[in-house]
Request: fold
Amino acid sequence: MKYSSRNLYALSLVFLFSVFTNTGLAESLSEQLDECKIIKVSLIRLQCYDRISNQTNKKTAVKTKKRLFNLGRSQKKESQVENTNPVKEPNDIEPDDKQNDPSLEEGFGQPKDLNEPDEINTNIKGVFNGWSGKTEFVLQNGQVWKQSSNGMLTAKLDNPKVRIRKGMLGSYILTVEGFNSSIKVKRIQ
Reply:
């Protein structure tokens, strides 16, 4: 039994070697596929098909890269022939007046108004009934703010004190004195 399994192993190696050498010499894809079809051992047959697949993928990938590269060159040549205007180099481009204006560059990255406070403390004008949905808040200093986030607070107060402070990313947060609740707001007037 051992002798026959060794023979089978040696025979499969010889057959595998012949398949490797013959697939390299095969002229067409159909011939390579036919050679793989005659292999009886499924694992070796699968390896044969994988080898063919890898060979065709490599060939098409190389052709595609060359073709794209050549198309890019031919299109570039055609555009140079068709255009009578010379192509400007990056250093030859004329500067835009807005880009190099020194007065505009001075304010770049700085807050818009340096005198703006981080928070305001004032009262809501009239009766405050809390907030729900898109509630508007009219303050005694004349400003009008609108609720910009979801939330609900039920309360009934006359002229309560409120604090509006800056939040993250340009948002503002309104807090009513005496309540441990806050809401994002947006100034509309």
Notes: The chain is about 40% helix and 20% strand. Strands lie at 119-123, 127-132, 136-138, 144-147, 152-158, 161-166, 172-176, 182-187. Helices lie at 2-25, 29-37, 42-82, 102-106.
